Amino acid sequence: MTQFNTKLVHGPQLNVDQAGAIVPPVYQSAMFRFAPDGQETHWDYARSGNPTREYLERQIATLENGDAGFAFSSGVAAIATVLAIFPDHSHFIIGDSLYSGTDRLINQYFSQHGLTFTPVDTRDLAAVEAAIRPETKAIFFETFSNPLLKVSSVKAISALAKTHDLLTIVDNTFLTPYYQRPLDLGADIVLHSATKYLGGHGDLIAGLVVSAHPDLSEKLAFLQNTIGAILSPLDCSLVTRGIATLSVRLDRETANAQAVAEFLAQHPDVAHVYYPGLKTDPGYALAQKETTGASGLLTIKLADNIDPLKFVNSTKIFDFADSLGTVSSLVKLPWFKLPEDKRADSGLTPQHVRIAIGLEDQQDLIDDLQQALVAAEK
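The line above is the sequence of Aminotransferase class V-fold PLP-dependent enzyme; the predicted structure tokens follow.
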């Protein structure tokens, strides 16, 4: 059987290229010819399907051990399409610490258009079960939450969902199928912002969805075509390129993150480090059971004597910017992107810094953070 790293490089072949190209070609065409007798062919109009997109969609489905994959123009577009499969008045249990774009989509759009949501700490199975209503349809959460990296059990939540005839929807952006395959643990739908680790180079916006069952695949295929938030052929090609080096990049980024986390954990100017790769992290034991790596993202809480804004503006290698999962390292102040009405319950303060680790030299990253801490002392 072909192993995972080989599947990253060699996706399912479509056998449509007549030139013998090794790299899947970019089919930059809006339409495809009908058969001579006027019958439709496999591809006709690019919103409905494109060979470049189909290669990527088959590949991500293979990597996640799912039934079918779907590529979208952004991670938020992917989430919106998944939520659109549910009827009006559906209720969802959601993680209480979600990516800000997901939170905005849920609370400022879908909650005003017939869906309801109850945020819960998904680490607490009793709280999850207590939130179930007769109209509940699904449980939606991030395996490692953003940005405090709380670790929830995909296996336990999926088992609970099945006993209540609910779907489990998992955002697997931080871990990717290299470190966790939620469908193997019982989930029904897995989502990715492919902008992050899957794309991996900070040069595209993309979202991916993989469904576990043909009935869900049919619904998602219909909505992908009907809503039309598809990923362009060029961006599909860029994600495919990124996937080929996924494990190599994540191995390096995770090793770098582990070293940086260990350094910061003992630093007097850092009050706390949130990283499931540390043995002192409350999610460490569960992460060891359900994942094969802690990935390249960590969050720290600076000591009170450190000016957070000065800290992020004093780094030389780390860029002060949003996003994560790219080849270069980034820092961000998550508190300042939160709506004011959500700050009190977020667990965040102005002292929290999210650190996305890249491929740079490990010691250079540590030295950069050290000098920034010195520069930011009040």
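Note on the example: The longest strand covers residues 136-142. The mean pLDDT is 95.
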